[in-house]
Write a structure and sequence with these properties.
- This protein has 122 residues and is α+β, with helices and mostly antiparallel strands.
- The protein has one domain (8-121).
- It has three helices and four strands.
- It has helices spanning 8-20, 71-84, 91-121; strands spanning 23-28, 36-38, 50-55, 64-66.
- A four-stranded mixed β-sheet has the order 2-1-3-4.
- A hairpin with a 7-residue loop joins strand 1 (23-28) and strand 2.
- It is elongated.
- Mean pLDDT is 72; it is low at 89-94.
- Residues 92-109 have a biased composition (Basic and acidic residues).
- Residues 84-122 are annotated as: Disordered.
Length: 122
């Protein structure tokens, strides 16, 4: 979640990608420059199923929606996207999120311990 515009729903798609061995092409209502591919390794693979989703930023609409595209159009988008960006949430991003979550949990435990000690001293 350290990456800009990376949210919990996006990480859920990464987890689904890992579990189901699939990938997601996410078309953004803000334009092709905001299109993302979510896959196991951050790269498009022709031999792995690819599902197409639409994305509306949180202040605009439904967030993620299912899209049905003609296969030829989807393949053209995937080739264009893969050649231009290759951008995705990767395993490294997931690990960074896990580390941040662990750090936050430890910080919360430390805060609770300090509050308890402060209460006892009063």
């Amino acid at each position: 979640m350290r990456q800009p515009k990376t949210y919990g729903d996006h990480l859920t798609l990464v987890a689904l990608s890992r579990e189901l061995n699939c990938q997601f092409l996410i078309l953004n209502s803000e334009g092709i420059d905001h299109t993302r591919l979510v896959s196991i390794d951050g790269e498009y693979a022709e031999d792995i199923a690819c599902f197409t989703l639409g994305y509306f930023p949180e202040n605009i609409g439904e967030h993620y929606v299912s899209l049905g595209l003609e296969e030829s159009y989807k393949q053209r988008l995937l080739r264009t996207f893969h050649n231009e960006t290759g951008s995705s949430v990767t395993e490294t991003d997931i690990r960074m999120h896990e580390i941040e979550t662990e750090d936050q949990s430890r910080q919360n435990e430390d805060d609770n311990t300090n509050e308890s000690a402060h209460s006892i001293n009063q």
